[in-house]
Predict the structure.
Amino acid sequence: MKIFGSAVPVLLLLVAPAVMNAENHKRGEKLFKAYCWGCHHQTAEAFGPSFKTIANKRDRSEIIAQIADPDHTYRQLGYTRNSMPAFDDLNASQLEALTDYIMQFKDKK
């Protein structure tokens, strides 16, 4: 019993990230549906670029900046105009979850 007891913390360290990733994925998907799906699709071009395109073209900090303050980042990202609204009501945790969700569509190399 003592051996099993000492293995539990190791098992938790291995399982916890997967559980946290699944939870963050659900949060990100929920945020996508609430804020993004009117203009973006996960893998197909819509009014805005797909998450696949965004994930392959941008890093995490650029994605977060564009979501939080597009009026000040669109030119730096190479866009000639900005049609994206600012989502300044999203907190840091929500921005991270949404960015995690977007980044899952990046091509595997």
